[in-house]
Structure formats: structure tokens, C-alpha cells
Fold:
Amino acid sequence: MSHTAHIPSHRKPRRSSSKLALRAGVAGGVLSTIAVAASPAQAEPVTETLEMPTLTNVDLSGALSTAVAASAEATEQDALAQDLRVQEDAAAAKAAKDAKKAKEEAERKAEAERKAKEAEEKALAEAQERASRSSDRTSLSASSSHDGGGSSESSYGDSTATGSAAAIVAFARAQVGDAYVRGATGPNAWDCSGLVQAAYRQANIDLPRVSSSQSSMGTSVSLDNLQPGDILYWGSRSGSYHVAIYVGGGKYVGAQNPSSGVVEQSLDWDAPSGAVRIL
Structure:
């Protein structure tokens, strides 16, 4: 007899294959169920449809028209603003120009008045001096006649300038040294007829502006019978091209030319064609 015959076996009895399969199936199903329950639920894909507005021809045309109109209005506003700035700048420039012109005119008038006053004072002083010299000459002449001598007359028939003639002569002499500028009428630059016209204005006599018209005024006088204040002319009387003022002593004052300016010269320096007397 075997020693192990009565020793019970420790092995578990084999189960039949059908029972094993059944248990396996049950276990598998349970595990599958557990696995499905444990796994997170898969999110279903979400599909969202956005509806876009349909642009019709009418909508597009309206929007474009509005944009064009807005752009045109903005352009017009810019143009108006720019035009306003231009007008303001022009107005400011004109105001500045007018102010400058008014200032220059006021200065010219003040200068002319100053020179006229100086001319009057100078004329008065010269008249007093001439009166004194005349008195001296009278005394000398009387003394010479007692001595059997004689006095000679000026070759130009001068007489002492008085009144209006003195004012004209004094004004003309006060401008000696000023510049000659064609068309100028003072106060610091003159042409020939402008100086004559201004000088006669001191005697409240208005002469024409141009030399040919000035030499046509008054009456003709001989160059041997000149008096201070007479107008000398060069050329024909009705077509003179230059005029000056006789100041006595065989001299004249005139705005000669750009290189000489206003000068006092002897008649022999540039002999005139003739003379007229207005006073």
C-alpha cells in the first residue's frame, strides 16, 4: 500500500470547462460594465451654425454712397477752412500794408511841414539880411554919388524877394542836396516839376504837375529881367522838358538829374531857354 494513498490531495478539484466559461463571461461582462461606468463620457461634437447677413446690391450701393458723401463733405469742410485761412491772411497783410502806407504818409507830411517851417524861418532871416544889405548898399550908393561914383545893376534885373517869392525861394533852397527821382514829389526826393510844384504850394499857388504845363503858365519874361521866384524852363515854352526856380543873384535851384540831385547853380552852368512869371 502506498504511503500516500490515505493522504488527501491538496489540489482543488477541477471545474468543468462550461462552468469556467460561464464564470469568465459573467466576469467579463461585469468588468466591461465597470469599465464603461468608470470611463468619462465622451462629449458629443457641437456644431454651431452662424447665419451671416446677405449683402444685396442695394445694401452695398447705399453704404458706398454714404461713404462717398461723407468723404466729399469732409473735403468740402477742409477746403472751406483753407479758404478762410487764406482770406484771413490776405486781410492781415492788407491791414499791415495800409498801416505802413498811413505811417509813411504821416511821416512824409510831417517832414514836409518841418521843411516848410524851416523854409519860412530861413526866408525871414534872409529877408532881414537882404534888407540890412540893401540899407548898407543904399548908404554906400548915396556916399558914392556924393563922391561922383555910381552903382551897377545886376545883369538879371534882380529885386529882393519878398512875400510869396521869398517863401518859394526859401523852400526851394531848403531842398538842396535831396535826391532826384523821376516822378518823386518829396519830401526827400524830387523830380524837376515836383520841386517847382511843391515850392509854389508854399505861396498857396497850385501848379500843374508836369514841366511843359508849368512853363505855359503866367507870362513870359526876358532872362535879363528875372526876379526871384520866376520859373525857368529848358526847351520850348509849351514843350519844355525841364524847369527850375530862379532864386536871385544869377542862380537857380532845380532837381537836375539822378547824379546831381537838387542843386543851386549859376545860370551860366546850364543856361535856360526862357522864363515865365506867375507871381
User: Anything to note?
Assistant: Residues 136-154 have pLDDT under 50 and may be disordered.
